[in-house]
Amino acid sequence: MSGARRQSGLSTIELVTVIALTGVLSVGLAGILRHPMQGHVAVSRRAELVDLADLALLRMSRDLRMALPNSVRVDGTRTSIELLHVAGGARYRAEPGINDPGGPAETDHTNAADFLSFGGDARWNLLGRMNGVAVGYDAALASGARIAIYPTGSEVWSDAAADASPAIITASTNRITFRDDGDEDQIELASVHRFSHASPRARLYLVDGPVSYVCDAASGVLWRIDGYAVAASQPTDLAAAPLATGRQARTGERIERCAFDFVPGTPSRSGLVTLEIVIANAGERVRLLQQVPIPNAP
Questions:
Q1: 2 — pLDDT class (breaks 50, 70, 90)
Q2: Backbone angles phi, psi at 51, to 5 degrees
Q3: Residue 3 region by backbone torsions, left for phi larger than 0, else alpha for psi between -120 and 50, else beta
Q4: End-to-end alpha-carbon separation of the chain, Å?
Q5: How many CB atoms lie within 10 A of CB 192?
Q6: Is the pTM of this model over 0.70?
Q7: Of the residues 174, 189, 208, which one is the last residue of a structural domain?
Q8: 194 and 92 in one domain?
Q9: CA angle 113, 116, 119 (to 5 degrees)
């Protein structure tokens, strides 16, 4: 038609058709991508849970490997485990002697205070230096540090709780000081202590205190506690003494369940601790199991 203007743009029908097709494509694309995205989120969540459980087990394993021989104990519910933590070790001088006799570094250690007599001692030497820990000389160690020799059985806990002498382990109140005796470290106690038994291999342990792990599934937390007083029976209540007076730290979170087991060692094999932790979050759940060999030869 002459003079008619050309029409441009989309008609209403075309616009509605485009919107409908776009909606159909969007729904189809969402359906295609939903499962892979959900799978990625689930894998990420499980990986996070595995990391949380692995860190908790790593911390527990490290402490257990530093347990005083024959000091690991698990409560009846299998949700708490306790040990006496070793800071360092050495061999004590069991008899008088002269190091490098006739040589340029000759050192006389024949004085009665230089060796452990097991008749009641307040001072004796080590064969060399304390291993595993840097000790400062001439300053008493922190209260609660103890010396243990030949812990052959569970009586180490009753001895430690009684703070008595004779005993396998010194009293928590018997302060320990290290002296530099030339080529050997010397241990000095605030008061005389008589150890119950001599070690066939002259082993000596420096214990810095008890450590407990308590699994509180109600709050979903695995607690690590130290800095508390030793008790003859294993404490498990976080809100009661002695655990309530210790340093409590979160070692694991989102804990659904824990199970700890300890099989004591024999003369022919080490003890074995089995640690099981189940962590859950948003419908995802992981279970980690780890076994830690515990040397029991004192």
A1: very low
A2: -60, -45
A3: left
A4: 112
A5: 12
A6: yes
A7: 208
A8: yes
A9: 100
